[in-house]
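Final report, results section. Input specification for complex C-07:
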Amino acid sequence: MPRLAFLCLLIGSSAFAQDAKKEIQKYQQMIAEGSPVELFELEGEALWKKPQGPKNASLENCDLGMGPGVLKGAYARLPRHFQDAGRVMDLEARLLHCMETLQGRSRKEATQRLFGNDDRASEMEYLSAYIAGESRGVKMAPGSAHPKEKEAFALGQKLFFHRAGPWDFSCASCHGEEGKRIRMQDLPVLSKPEAARPVVATWPAYRVSNSQFKTMQWRINDCYRQMRMPEPVFASEATIALNMFLTATGKDEPYRGPGTKR
Amino acid sequence: MAGPMKMRATLAGGNTAGAHTEIRVLMTHPMTTAQGGQPLHFIQNITVKLNGRTVVEAEVSQAVSRNPVFSFRLKGGAKGDKVEVSWLDNKGDTSRIESAIA
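Structure output:
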């Protein structure tokens, strides 16, 4: 008899988990329908064309890898190696590079306000929304042929599983087991392509619960904060490598972002 | 200064008697309630005009989210008709957007 009761409990709880999953999917669909992502894209477009910095230049000649000013599909090919910079860059690292080289801005000034708030997104966030939106429908295909791209992938993979900090956490501590979630948010096993694909295809994204647009550099930064590790440097070798590992693992799905998250 | 708006107006149902116009409009607005010491700042009125004629007048409450999206469904309408949506908030700020039905 006790064994039977235990069995019933087991069946009951798995049915509950299924229901919860369905309800969360329904909720996600509902918030996506009213997403204000396009407003961020519009602001980003205006910023892309706005002359700024000591050189009073816009970013319109910024080469995101497909030639100066080519936006269509450019985001879907990032991160990638850039000959002129001699290193692998993701979108935000490349934008920073263009702000320094084209607009003549100092790194200090350009990185003053990287992450915005609900009243005003940051320049990086607006620009990311616009540029990522220009890759809708394009298959994600980050650089994978150059030795430095391979190096970045390997480093990112290592970092993903590297345990450190006061809690001895790694990315895989949360993103390494199937079927886990924090409240409404699934915790996909990001080292598996089938789990990484929908993530890569929808970041950067608008977060409904705090009305903010979030970029991948922010996502990685905040994961490190949650792991109680020292804050990683924006667009550093480490964060770009992690982004490369995640994007390359989740490649081949058409981009359908910027997404909308809980 | 008011942030951008974005609107899509499309004709559904073709040139049949059941044709209707679907309007979807996004607005940039903080929509803050007086909670937590923030200044009360929200959209109060929304007006939809079809070829200059007012077809919807809406009163909006503080309960609407930040950067809201609104959808309207109008009877009739034809391709090329001008749709104008404007809002007015409690501080007297206003913004409008216009586009043709596609």
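The radius of gyration of chain B is 15 Å. The interface with chain A takes residues 3-6, 26-28, 30, 65-69 of chain B (CB under 8 Å). This concludes the modelling results for the funded period.
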